[in-house]
Structure formats: C-alpha cells, structure tokens
Amino acid sequence: MALNYGPKMHQVTSANIDSVSITGGTLISAGNNGPAGEYQVVFQHDQSGCGGADSGVYIQLNDTVKWSNIVYRWSGTGSASCWSFNVAGFGAAADPTNGGTGNLKSYDEGLGDGVFYSYLTWEVPAYQSHNKVSACDNNSDNFFIFNQTLPKAFSIKRRRNSLASLAGIHHGRSCNSTGAGAITTINNIRIY
Asked: Rounded to 5 degrees, what are φ and ψ at 112?
C-alpha cells in the first residue's frame, strides 16, 4: 500500500501554457521535450545589460488547472552579476504586465517559499548568506559569478499573488555573459 503526503501536484505540460515571452535573447525550445515528456523552456541570453538592454524569459500559465503554488527546476550556465527570479529586476520587459514578478508573492521562507535540490548554488556554504531571488553585485556570496561553465541548478517553490490574473515564472539577467554559454533551462514545473 502506498501513502501520499502533502498536496497533489499537477505536472505542467504545453496544455497549461498561455504564453512564453522573451526579451534580449533567443528562445531555443519550448514544449513537452523535458525529462519524462514534461514542459521545458530553453532560453539563450544574448544581451549583457549593465546600462544597456538586458535579457529575460517569462512563462505564463493559463488557468485550466487552478493553482496557488508553483514549484519549478531552474538550471543555467554563464555568469551574471545581476539576476532576478520573479521579482522586479532584470529582463522585466519579458513580463510587462507584472514587471518581472510573474504575479507571484514576495519570497518568504516563513510563509512556505523555499529553495531545495540545489547544485553549485545555496548548498555551498560560501553562497548561503546571499539573497535567493535577486542580486546586483560581485560579492563573494553571489553564486552566479563563479563556476561560469558548469551548470548551476536549484528547485524553488513560490506562492501566487492574485488568482484574478495569470501568473508564471520569470528569470532575468544583466551584467552577464551572453551567447551559447549563457543558457537558462526551466522544467519540472508543478502547480497546486
């Protein structure tokens, strides 16, 4: 007999996507081509920002499945002094309605948000003191300026802000490397 714990999550597929918007980059792929046929977006950052145009990707979900929480896997290559995950920040032109927040609430671990299954990010003691959703610095605790050629990764759980508006995943970079070595992959998206 199997036991299930926690909420029943819905695995996101193309049927759950309203739109994918980008700025300052190239959408390499978007569709049910991730591990186990799940929805996956691969995006190349082509603008370096730092006073000029920056880059970002926004995956907006539709409401065919009602949800209040989202969990997804992010992995990336390249370096960036400035970056943001669902906060007003960099590459926000990809998410003009929400200014980069993706209609998600402010990150608060006390209210259930969290980062887990990390690789070359917050599992490294030197990076644990850094803000988990945004940066614009060259501090020694900014994971994104180190290990530039190795893929960095983590899973993150966030809460939806308003059920009256569509919501989704936004990631942007500035003061960053560009081209084939500056890739963002988002997959393993679950909503509940």
From this structure: 110, -10
